[in-house]
Amino acid sequence: MFMYKKMILPTDGSELSFVGVEEGLEAAKKFDIPVVAIYVIKPSSYSHGMMGQEMEGMNISTQEMLREGFVKQGENVLEKVKMKAEDIDVELKTKLTEGTPYDEITKLANEKDIIYMSSHGRSGLSSLFLGSTTDRVIKHTRCTVAVVRPKDDES
């Protein structure tokens, strides 16, 4: 039987992404696989204004303050995942990083790993079949990717 070395659980903190997190944690428990939960901060989140417009005149301290807010948000999300893992006795490490989400997620994965993620995250169902991050992870990794779709009442 093929055994995965680790499971990677990406989350953006949205309810939809937690569908994948919760199902992934259950699978990790069942198959006794250690887990790495990852939260990725996009630098554009704090270096650009609303609707993607540059924040003219923004000084470094304002950008750093915004960045710190996103870091705190990521820490809170990962703490929530950690508590869920502890509740069901799953070995879990967390990773908070900055960059392009699909790139940071795929960097963590080796061929003998599995990425367990929701079909959609914060952007919701804006993409017809898969969220853009999920689609890019599938296209850019050599490991197995399990895509979890939300139940009808969760979308």
Instruction: Determine and state the CATH class.
Output: Alpha Beta
| Quantity of strands, as a count | 5
Label the CATH architecture. Answer: 3-Layer(aba) Sandwich
**What is the percent of helical residues?**
40-55%
| Order of SSEs | EHEHHEHEHE
Major β-sheet profile? 5 strands, parallel
How would you classify the helix and strand content by structural class?
alpha/beta
Short description:
With 155 residues, the chain is α/β, with parallel strands linked by helices. It has a single domain, classed as Rossmann fold.
Question: Could you walk me through the main structural features you see in this protein, from its secondary elements to its overall organization?
Answer:
The protein has a single domain (7-49, 58-154), classed as Rossmann fold. A five-stranded parallel sheet has the order 3-2-1-4-5, with helices on both faces. It starts with 6 loop residues before the first strand and ends in a 7-residue tail after the last strand. Helix 4 runs parallel beside helix 5. The chain is globular, with a radius of gyration of 16 Å. Residues 49-55 and 124-129 have low confidence and may be disordered. The protein has helices at residues 15-31, 44-47, 60-87, 101-108, 132-140; strands at residues 7-10, 35-41, 92-98, 114-118, 144-148. It has five helices and five strands, in the order βαβααβαβαβ. The chain is an alpha/beta fold.
